[in-house]
Structure prediction request, 242 residues.
Amino acid sequence: MRMFLVLTALILSAPAAGADSSVPLLSVTPGAGGQVIGVPGASLPWLLLFPFLPALLLAFTAFTRIAVVLFLLRQGLGSHTTPPNLVLTGLAVLLTIFVMSPALKTIDSEAYQPYLAGTMNLNDAAEKAATPLKSFMLRQTRADDLGLFTADDKRIDPKAVESVPLAALAPAFLTSELKTAFQIGFMVVLPFLVIDLVVAAVLTALGMIMLPPQLVSLPLKLLLFVTVDGWHLLVGSLIGSF
Prediction:
């Protein structure tokens, strides 16, 4: 919840800085039947962004890489429903919290707690929260991907976090994360592909062309994955990749 609140302020602070900060998101006025809750016209665009905030916040974290690799693992195993989506998403969220915990602690101590104490306004808290988050994103972003979105602006120094705008860093970071996730996913899926090819070749040589290879290869892939302690290796590799 703290991460959601502070990063929400971070996302909305850039456009909100140029708007009238005195306009509330919601207004409560007394009426004949009690209090009436209204939405000022100036704040309506920001309220419409709320349904998309979870996806945006997850795009700024390690969730993308972890989730893509986990779902590629399930695809490689050939088990399209096990583990279920809820389990894989929950594991991805927990690993994301663990990976992002240093940045989240910094955001909490330097931005969220001062904002709650009233010693820092929303815009200053958003600027403080931006630094550790952008530092994490910049470390995971390839220079080529960042240059794709900052090539026209010569004032941006890729080595200086403060000079890189979030509007350019966010898509570059997500592009790099997808590339890294597919590279890791390829290495994860490759052994399972070899097992599928071997099983299909053996069944064809035996003349058992009517037997689906997945029925034979799935137990073998599960046995291999459990024997090498696949979950431990995969989770450790994902955490170490950051």
Observations:
- Residues 2-7+53-187 form one domain.
